[in-house]
Amino acid sequence: MKSTSKYLREDLLKLSPYKPAKEPCQIKLNSNESPYDLPEDLKMRIWERVKKESFNCYYDPSCDEVRQALAGYLGIEPDKIFVGSGADEIIYDIVLAFAGPGREVIIPVPAFPSYETFSIISGARVINIPLLLEKYATGWKWSLDVLKIKKYFKKDTPQVMFICYPNNPTGDYFEEEDIIELIDGFNGIVAIDEAYYEFGGRTFINRLSDYPNLVIIRTFSKVFSLAGLRIGYAVANEALIEEFYKVKPPYNVSLFSQIAAVEVLKNMDWVEKVRRKIISARENLKTKLEGIPGITVYPSSANFFLCRFEISRDYVYQKLLEKGILTKKPEGEGVENTLRFSVGTPKQNEVLIRSLKEILKGS
Ligand SMILES: *Cc1c(COP(=O)(O)O)cnc(C)c1O
């Protein structure tokens, strides 16, 4: 044990540091990023604006211009939007404001790891509830164990619940009625993470008027292709949005990120092209993956696929890496022997398919 461990909070001793893979690769499919960088002229427009700003001064702490632009994109009032340094910061703010010591956070798992990690850091107790997985005539389906989740609902102390929609790492939506049933019976904040909204099109934003305790999480890291600039947002009713300002770091979003987000939102034609290209590549990739024996492909409404292998996933992961393709090994109950990989460009997807065929044939 390192000598400084005795200074660490006891409840954090078991936490392992989050260190995303940094293996060198030609095709990076491990983080669900967009495979398309911003076009050069759009980058130049961002830079032309950025360079006129005073780097020595703090920039807008409430991201007014971004919220105004998002209001147009979402068709909602700017006061119902809060902007953070990535959706990750939004998740942090939620658990800091609404979880913490003595509180509980309910997470249907497998899910995005930040929900659990940040909840623990906030001092809250985490309740992980496994998803159900069943095969129907239409294919595999992951669903919420509504009965089991509701058994953990408390009437006396407020709780927090995260629902990822569509779910990372499993890839698809849960039933809308199941989520509504959960929200209806819940005493606390329900956070619906719609990081992949643009690839599937379903949202709970239009339910905000029914539920004062609902918050929607979105990001610029996926279809908007700005993962490197760290910018995300929350949508909720004004009163709930006000609470975010109590826990946020004062100047949470850099001037560069704010300006980039605004300029990308002015170029929705480009975003729409990226969106269509990724969706069409996803459908193509799905058909090809399903044609490879030894792989179970789960349905996806996002920009990635979760696949289960008959042979060892560590072997497939390593062999793909040797061919220059970096994928992700999801952790937790239910995702044993699976890999998750993002939808790349059509060319990258071809290399992936060719590589998988070789690896599975040679095993
Ligand atoms: C990628 C992702 C995010 C986005 O995180 P950022 O911090 O905005 O990059 C949020 N939630 C889920 C489920 C994700 O997969």
UniProtKB/TrEMBL annotation:
Keywords: Amino-acid biosynthesis, Aminotransferase, Histidine biosynthesis, Pyridoxal phosphate, Transferase
GO molecular function: histidinol-phosphate transaminase activity; pyridoxal phosphate binding
Pathway(s) where this gene product acts: Amino-acid biosynthesis; L-histidine biosynthesis; L-histidine from 5-phospho-alpha-D-ribose 1-diphosphate: step 7/9
Transmembrane helix in keyword set: no
Entry EC number(s): 2.6.1.9
Subunit structure: Homodimer.
Protein name: Histidinol-phosphate aminotransferase
Species of provenance: Thermosediminibacter oceani (strain ATCC BAA-1034 / DSM 16646 / JW/IW-1228P)
Highest classification ranks of the organism: Bacteria, Bacillati, Bacillota, Clostridia, Thermosediminibacterales
Gene that specifies this protein: hisC
